[in-house]
Amino acid sequence: MKPQATEPGPNSQPVGINEGRPGWALAAFEILTRVAGSYNGLITYSELADEVQRSSGLFTRSPQRNWIGKVLADVAHRCHSEQLPALSALVVHKHDGQVGDGYAEVLHIAGIDQIDDRLEREEHAAISRLECYRHWCDNVPVDAKPRLSPILEQRVSRVAPRREALLGDVCSRCFIEMPISGLCASCDA
Q1: Looking at CB atoms within 10 Å, which of 40, 41, 66, 110 has the fewest?
Q2: Rounded to the nearest 5 degrees, what angle is found at the Cα of 74, between the Cα atoms of 6 and 29?
Q3: pTM (global) more than 0.90
Q4: pLDDT digits (tens, 9 = 90+) for 32-52
């Protein structure tokens, strides 16, 4: 989904963020179910903010960072109360492909401790996304596995090989990484 920048239309109403929130939450739920209907579908925070304003007819000049997290918290609560997968997991930042800090609300509602490790949190969100696809999408492969967003997958795959290449053998006696020479500097093994 690549909506254009949000501008008030002829039927749009300018609203404050608290006034617009209920309408935006309803619109966000509908938009996110459509995103979930496409296997591996994702939407960015800014795309969602533009789309909920356009679809609800409720427009604000307040930056989306001031209100979209609260709208997604409302969606998370609705999903939980209706025993649906967490649609908020489908929303990622355009610059890094990660869920935002507001994803902690999804974890909190589910009774899961906060996940401080960003990659671990992204892996949890990937599982939630797969649950969304299985619920709302008709063509999810039987052997589908949770996936990070494409942007994040690229970053992780570029970092992982370099990290492995830097690791040397480990001494069998003291379990310290050995230099390239293969001789342990700690115990001369």
Answers
A1: 66
A2: 60
A3: no
A4: 999 999 999 999 999 999 999
Looking at this protein, which amino acid is placed at residue 76?
Answer: A
User: Rounded to whole angstroms, how far apart are CA atoms 144 and 141?
Assistant: 5
| Greatest CA separation for the chain | 80
At 19, is the pLDDT very low, low, confident or very high (cuts 50, 70, 90)?
very high
Please give the full DSSP string across the chain, using - where no structure is assigned.
Answer: --PPPP---TT-EE--HHHHHHHHHHHHHHHHHHHHTSTT--EEHHHHHHHHHHHH-EE--S-GGGTHHHHHHHHHHHHHHTT---GGGGEE-TTT----TTHHHHHHHTTPPP--SHHHHHHHHHHHHHHHHHHH-S---TT------HHHHHHHHHHHHHHHHH---B-TTT--BPPTTS--TTT--
Answer with the residue of higher pLDDT: 22 or 7.
Answer: 22
pLDDT tens digits, residue range 163-189?
445 556 777 777 677 776 677 777 764
Question: And the tokens for 112?
Answer: 């899961």
